[in-house]
Amino acid sequence: MDKLSIIRPDDWHLHLRDTPYLEAVLPHTARQFARAIIMPNLQPPVRNYDDASAYRQRILSALPDHSDFQPLMTLYLTDNTSAEEIERASQSDFIFGAKLYPAGATTNSEAGVTGLKPVYPALEAMQKHGLVLQIHGEATEHEVDIFDREKCFIDTSLKSIHEDFPNLRIVFEHITTADAVDYVASENDFIAATITAHHLLINRNAMFTGGIRPHHYCLPVAKRELHRQALLKAATSDSVKFFAGTDSAPHARDAKESACGCAGIYSAYSAIELYAEAFELTDDFSHFEAFMSVNGPHFYQLPINDDNIQLEKTSWKIPESLDYPNDELIPFKAGEILKWKLINND
Ligand code: DOR
Ligand code: ZN
Question: How far is the CA of 46 from the centre of ligand 2 (A)?
């Protein structure tokens, strides 16, 4: 098999930042995907309807001419997000969910939630009005080993949220462990998970190959090989609960290559091809279209896209670096050869 044709995919978890960085990264995503769930962790965060509406307008203005890419907006939950704000957001036709960041868990999460109880009125309203809850699922206690934080969050927080709000649709974002795969697979249809291309392709060794590799550092951090294999098995399985969300998170080269480097991997440049690379490892593309283009819309109760994309099996090299204001951006797998290339897509 040397050609693939699938329904145009969507990216169910994306960081676009804001002007002028937005203009540098958005064309990469818009070239490949029809829609993307836009993360709200700007500074200051996207907290309410007005913030989301203004941010959406900035994204639409930054799109290349003739692009019909659609940003699907989310709100950033804080301890003070009110039920009224959630209701107002749910009445819009462009806000699809709200993101729960445990305070301190990751980049720009300082304004996130400090415990579950403060956010319960907002979750109650989300359940009532049909907004999807996206969760960064990591415990934040410093004494919890960084490699155990996802599992710890499942046990201490995720299970309670799911039990207390049985009709709330939850996306457990960018899962990294076999524990998360097992939990999502064993629960009902109200809980699903996104999986990034990088967590399908690297394990934690990639952060330390021959020295410290800051461009492989993201949160949640990549885990042991057995976890990567569990993720790959889930993504390529016939389960409808797993779908593509890149978590592509641009940080300038200087901010990554630093004594305290930022968390985030920039995969948007070649996102679909990276997912194809991961499926290629299993030699089984039978569920590639479902994972990339069908399971996500199904969970978000949105139509699937009405055009197709094509990929061809041909070697090509990811650039060493990309343009970025006042600096450069190092894409995931910079300078490496990929086996699949998106074609006929301009
Ligand atoms: O690696 C990450 N980068 N993980 C996140 O949760 C946030 C993201 C970012 O915004 O840079
Ligand atoms: Zn993210």
Answer: 14
Ligand 1 and 15: CB distance under 6 A: yes
β strands within the chain, DSSP E:
3-7, 11-14, 35-38, 70-76, 95-100, 132-135, 170-172, 191-195, 242-244, 308-317, 322-324, 327-329, 337-343
Q: What's the pLDDT tens digit per position in 168-188? A: 999 999 999 999 999 999 999
Kindly calculate the radius of gyration of the chain based on its CA atoms and give it in whole angstroms.
19
The pTM assigned to this predicted structure is 0.98
Task: Scan for tokens 């819009």, then name that residue.
Answer: 92
Count the neighbouring beta carbons within 10 Å of the beta carbon of residue 121.
15
Is residue 207 classed exposed, middle or buried when 0-12, 13-18 and 19+ CB atoms within 10 A define those classes?
A: middle
Concerning whether 164 is annotated as a catalytic residue, the answer is no
Residue 268 alpha carbon to ligand 2 centre in Å? 12
Residue in 189, 247, 254, 284 annotated catalytic: 247
Query: What digits encode the pLDDT tens for the residues 128-167?
Result: 999 999 999 999 999 999 999 999 999 999 999 999 999 9
Residue ranges and CATH numbers for the domains of the chain are 8-306 (3.20.20.140)
Question: Average pLDDT over the chain, rounded to whole?
Answer: 97
Q: Both tokens of residue 308?
A: 């197709």
User: Mutation test of ligand 1: which of 219, 246, 330 has the most ligand atoms closer than 8 Å to its C-beta?
Assistant: 219
Peptide bond into 44 cis (omega under 30): yes
